[in-house]
Amino acid sequence: MGAINCDGRTIREINSEIKRLVADGEKNIVVKNTAARHNLGVAIVKPVKLRFEGSVGYYCAGMIDGPTVEVTGSAGWGLAESMLNGTVIVRGSAGNAAAATIRGGTVVIHGDAAARLAVALKGGLVLVGGNCGYMAGFMAQKGTLIVCGDVGAAFGDSMYEAVCFVGGKIGELGNDAVIEKPTEQEEAFLRDTLKSHMPKKTVLKFKKVVAGRKLWNFSKQERAVWKEAL
Amino acid sequence: MAPHSEPNRPPLKASGTYTPAVIEDIQVKAELGRYRLRGFGTLRERTWATFDDLTFIPCTLTRIPLEGYREKCSARTVLGKRFAKKPIELDIPIMITGMSWGALSYNAKVALAKGANAAGSSNTTGDGGMLMAERENSRALIYEVLPSRYGINVHHLQMADGIELTIGQGAKPGTGGLLLGSKVLDTIAKQRDLPVGVDQRSPARHPDFLGPDDMVIKIEELREATDWRVPIFVKMGATRVFDDVRLAAKAGADVVVVDGMEGGTGAAAEICQEHTGIPTLAAVCEARAALEDVGLYGEVQLIIAGGIRNGVDAAKAMALGADACYIGTAALIALNCNAPLYVEDYEKIGAAPYHCHHCHTGLCPVGITTQKEDLMKRLEIEPAAERVANLLHAMTSEIQVLARACGKADIHDLEPEDLRALSLEASMICDVPLVGTTRVFGGGPGWKERRCH
Fold first, then answer.
1. DSSP letter (8 states) at residue B327
2. What is the pLDDT of residues B349-360, one digit of tens each?
3. Contact A100 B208 (CB under 8 A)
């Protein structure tokens, strides 16, 4: 196992060391004393296990393709942004724009997520154990967002084909967001997903939120919706 | 016969306020129920000060010119010397700006890449990500990171020779991209992770940072992702240029790109194209003053874009402080945009050669701004690439003609002293004396006054 101590080292030195270990074929890397440093472990494109002990700052595991990343503390803004593939697990909570524009992979946040969670989601799976803030799922294109707790206002605003599931209360639906009943397959998928990522968590019933598709094309027949969205 | 000359009939009076164009606009919107959309960029008559309001004052007795057609005049351009391990080195200072594969056809994108490559210049990706054919055919490819992050791919980012973090665009600052459903066909929809046929309205704001403070961290992320190898550009539409350029430079950009009001677009609200932003001439002056203000002029390079039509515009922009210029619309015109070909197809979309701004429809008669196979075939890649290369050479040679006449052995040595203003406005904006005087009217640009207090 490779171990890196962040104390007294620049982010360039820390990331270079991670990349050197990955290039040498190391499969397990532990990074200690992360001290909420920004840009830890960005753009790692190999299937390696990376464990950040402590909290991390902005863009941790941003633009990765393949690694399994664990953060034992909380994460700052833009966690795993633009990830192509891999798994990112945060034991604590995550700041704004967690899992922004990811195109694949899985992001699991055991605590809460702040505003604009999974903004412009383009694929993959985002699972939040706690609550999330304002405007989660804004313009989400593809992929799945699951929030076990409550979600804030403007939830699922202006979405395309992404599918959201909410275990708690919905503060307010966003523009063009509609509630649907989950199918049996979806309920089974939700049970399996929780079981594999958060076995101690029980959510009795999920609400499904998808796009009403009234904003997909300009139409003067939909003036009430477009008034806000134009 | 003109109405006023008809006998027994008083002259007709037309409103100066409700002109035929205004009446048409109101009536179209009364049907449409929303703002009007179109492509191309501003169509307004140029009533503001432009590069045309400046003239070069070549050498006579006080200075000695270089031999016009013989002596060397270097056009070599290096960008990203501040932090990047591998700055971009180009033979010429005219680069191809970011235009998306989606707004443009595959053939257009590849022709631009090949043309830029042949001329020793760079090409830029665009909203929707990178085309592999564009990478393969570019000696220098700049990868745009836009608010939408459509097609974002770390592997493509790591293959690039430069990264451009795009904050906005001159034709429509403060708004995101638009791609109407007629262009969001199978391949483009898949590339952007969108449903086929949606009217795609891209976000105006980056999803994961808000202002200059966290942009510092974003820039660091992009550098870490590329091991500090390639230059990071920050591109913005021209609005509060003096402040915005200072912020971008302080945030750690290697290169700042300022895109003026005359810049083009594949589709945008018409009002944004006509009534937002500041002209490219004013933008370059403010941008230079901004870099001087923070002590980074020369260290952070400045690229100017927005309505650069020829080597003269580029030479004037460079004399005022730009290190290089982007062209977009001019490059498309080299491809055949608005050429008198397939005239009947221009008519079908309500346009005509030299009057077409219908890029948003996806029905480009010359195969540039379309995703339809039959139309795209009209643009043959190889001859189109050659036309782009020729234009880039021609523009560079125009800059060299002016530079040699001004006694410069390097086009980057052109300076404001080589210029005089033909209008009061240009004199005030550019800090250049009005012709026939030795004075800068108005005491120079406003930011200089502010600095003096």
1. E
2. 999 999 999 999
3. yes
